[in-house]
Amino acid sequence: MTLATTSLYALLLSAIWFVLWMRVSSARTALSCSIGDGGDPKLLQRIRQHGNFIEWVPFVLVLMVLAEAQGTDALWLHAAGVLLIIGRLAHPFGLPVDNAGHPLRYLGNGTNILAVAILAIALIRILTGI
């Protein structure tokens, strides 16, 4: 079993993770701030952009691995993977410090929730034989 579909999305997501991590790391270096945000709103914003990625992506990838390993059709996996990619690309831009209701924040979280729902339905179908 190669888990090729999940691996594709994990690879694409690792590129997004790297960019977000570099943005945090470079801001920390510029501020000489090893821990926390040093009271800098820009660093706090970057930490949350990266943190939200870390909060969502491993969970969805685990669901993808479980679904793919149990034979879920690739269409379900691609639907969830594309939604996750869209969400992870949109969400960082939807986290401005001064606007909790930014549309890209809703797009990012909404696509993640849809990806989880698709994978949950796929797993329920497998477990129940539907």
In short:
The chain has 130 residues and is mostly helical. Helix content is 77%, strand content 0%.
Secondary-structure element sequence?
A: HHHH
Computed Rg = 17 Å
CATH fold-type name: Four Helix Bundle (Hemerythrin (Met), subunit A)
Name the CATH superfamily classification: Membrane associated eicosanoid/glutathione metabolism-like domain
Content of β-strand: under 5%
Mean pLDDT: 95
Low-confidence stretches: none
Number of strands: 0
- Give the CATH class: Mainly Alpha
Multimeric state: single chain
What is the correct CATH architecture? Up-down Bundle
Number of domains: 1
Query: How many helical stretches?
Result: 4
Distance between the first and last residues' Cα: 23 Å
Notes on the protein architecture:
77% of the residues lie in helices and 0% in strands. The protein has a single domain (4-128), classed as Membrane associated eicosanoid/glutathione metabolism-like domain (Four Helix Bundle (Hemerythrin (Met), subunit A), Up-down Bundle). The relative contact order is 0.15. It has 130 residues and is mainly α. The model has no long low-confidence stretch (mean pLDDT 95).
SSE blueprint:
Blueprint: H1 4-31, H2 41-69, H3 74-90, H4 103-128
Question: What labels would you give this structure?
Answer:
130 residues, mainly alpha, Four Helix Bundle (Hemerythrin (Met), subunit A), 4 helices, elongated
